Amino acid sequence: MLHCARRTARVSTWRTCSSAAVQGAAPTGASGLDCVVASASAGPALVSCARVTWPADTATEQVHRQAAQLAWGRCLAALQGRPVAFAAHFSADPTSAAQHLTAAAALFSPAKGSETNTVPPMVGASADVWHPVAGRRSTPATNHLILAAAALPDGVHCRTFACETPAVPDFGDLRGALTTRPPLMLMVSHPSFAVGQLVSRLDDALPYSAKAGAVASPVEQAQGDAAVSLAPPPMVMQDTRPPASTPTCVGIAFSWTPSSAPTASIPAAVMETHEFAEMCRILLGAARCRGWFFSPALSSSLFLPHFGPLKQGEPPGDALDAARFPEGESALAVQLFVLDDIVVLPYQREELVIYEPRYRLMLRNAIEAAGPSGVASFAIVNAKGVGTLVALAGRSAQDDGRAHCAVVGGRRLRVVPGSTAVALDAFGLSTGDVTFIDDAPCAEDDPELAASAKEAVNRFDDVLAQARAAASKANRELTHDGAAAARVKEAQARAAHDLSWALASLLPASPGTLRDWLVCTSTAQRLRSQSKLLAKEAGNIAAQWAATW
Where are the alpha helices (DSSP H) in 15-96? Predict the structure, then answer.
């Protein structure tokens, strides 16, 4: 029923082939193509998706044709001979959409497992391809196409639609054609106005429908192309006219024949909400679109863990430490949260707002991987792949998966170059292998280390005294100075390593300086750098502490 808000178990089985495994299946002469395919079983539906990329200097007409044949051949193979219900296309070069879909249509024949020569509904749009966060190939594959196809259950009706008005489209015709079947909207492309306006219009026109969509570039009907003469004609598009005159909305609508009707006005569907959500994941999560929208129940099914409350408090300290300070020196595969403006240091607590689909998915994956009694962890890194493993120390989520989270920093890490990847169903979420960055061993009674620690503490005490004096002069009373001083003293008593990170979390250093401290493997050198900053910027640091503490 479309009214369920949470799923109780994950129903899809995902199978992703590596590019190396698929590349050998390319047609003759297509050695430059790099293909990744994925398929999903979502209840009665079977969905497949293929992404093909190739270098810019090989973008010939033959390569376009071979790429389409490779991608569609892999999609059809993943559907295990079941008839294709519809087909969707994203391309970096919208002018090649006709070539791609023409090649796809040629594959739909009795020899390919279809009972008729009828071409299924097709839609095309222009969108970017996701790149991993680090370790990009030296020559980016700027040419790509992402093709998806699905074999859907009996009773499914698919219909492509287009609106050529620059205003918010009126879906009256579509609504009239599907009066007795609740449509499930998908693959909507409409950048001429805000996504919120489009969703509002969809809600007004189709109030009882589960709706999901991606906002990609609009595209123009390719008149005179061989592909548009097929029956029924696919919506093959070219982005050639000015934005003001291009069709503003294209997409596919799905509807399920009602199996029963709880009320006269709200018929039931034969596909569960969580099954439709899993289908949307692979269809909408592969291309880099301008934005996505999902009905509340779909968002809940896509981005919320299948167990646990929406609000979670801080776990026990030993569990938190085990999650953020894993033992061993071998590489670890982790999800990557890319942040260039925030540096999370070891032992530091940071508040995060999770709202992008890829990071909502990341949070769900991390929680489910940890299990009901474990502590979720992931990596926060910059674009160069340097960062920290963090553990989830608290979470307050909404029904759509957006959340406010508290994390605590742990071991420092670096992403292994070339190891990052973006799954076809992940909305651009990167994963990668990481190696840990640890300080070189050094005895606590080492003269150089002891002298560096003592100097850093003395500098800190001097600047803190200046801050207190400045606050007193301004008739202000500091409220956080005592806790900061106690934190430094406690860290000093434990180890010079801990002292360096306690000072790093208190100093108003630039992101670049913080990153330098992250990759530094000498505790003494890090402490000396902090002493120099305290000496050079003593007045500015004292003034900032006096104003904020």
Answer: 19-23, 61-78
Q: How far is CA 285 from CA 9, 279, 449, in A?
A: 20, 10, 50
Give tens-digit pLDDT for 323-334: 999 887 777 889
DSSP symbol at 149: E
Task: State the CB neighbour count (10 A cutoff) for residue 304.
Answer: 23
**Do residues 504 and 423 touch, judged by C-beta distance below 8 A?**
no
Q: What is the mean pLDDT of the chain?
A: 77
Q: Which helix (H) or strand (E) holds 201?
A: helix 195-205
Q: Is the pLDDT of residue 507 over 70?
A: yes
Per-residue pLDDT, 483: 92
> Which residues lie below 8 Å from residue 13, measured CB to CB, with a gap of 6+?
40, 41
The DSSP string of 353-417 is: EE-SHHHHHHHHHHHHHH-TTS--EEEEE-TTSEEEEEEEEEEEE-TTS-EEEEEEEEEEEEEPT
CA distances to 89, 94, 120, 229 from 102, rounded to whole Å, are 12, 14, 12, 10
CA distance 307 to 281: 20
Domains for the chain: give ranges and CATH numbers: 14-303 (3.30.1330.40), 311-437 (2.30.130.40), 447-548 (no CATH)
d(CA 469, CA 30): 73
Does the global pTM surpass 0.85? Answer: no
Residue written as token pair 């979670």: 312
- Contact indicator for 1, 268 with CB cutoff of 8 Å: yes
Look at the chain and count its residues: 549
Element (H or E) spanning 291, and its range? Answer: strand 291-294
Q: In the prediction, which pLDDT does 26 show? A: 38
Q: Which amino acid is at 421?
A: A
Q: Report yes or no: 236 and 101 within 8 Å, Cβ to Cβ.
A: yes
Q: Does an H or E element contain 196, and which?
A: helix 195-205
| More confident: 14 or 377 | 377
Q: What percent of the chain has pLDDT over 70?
A: 72
Residue 370: predicted pLDDT = 92
Confidence of residue 83 (pLDDT cuts 50, 70, 90): confident
Letter string b/e over residues 168-195, b meaning 16 or more CB atoms within 10 A of that residue's CB: bbebeebeebbeebbbbbbbbbbbbbeb
Mean pLDDT for the stretch of residues 365-393: 93
Q: Which residue has the higher pLDDT, 49 or 139?
A: 49
Q: Residue 404: beta bridge partners? A: 353, 396
The residue behind tokens 């330098």 is 516
Before 120, cis peptide (omega within 30)?
A: no
What would the 3-class secondary structure string for 506-543 be?
HCCCCHHHHHHHHHCCCHHHHHHHHHHHHHHCHHHHHH
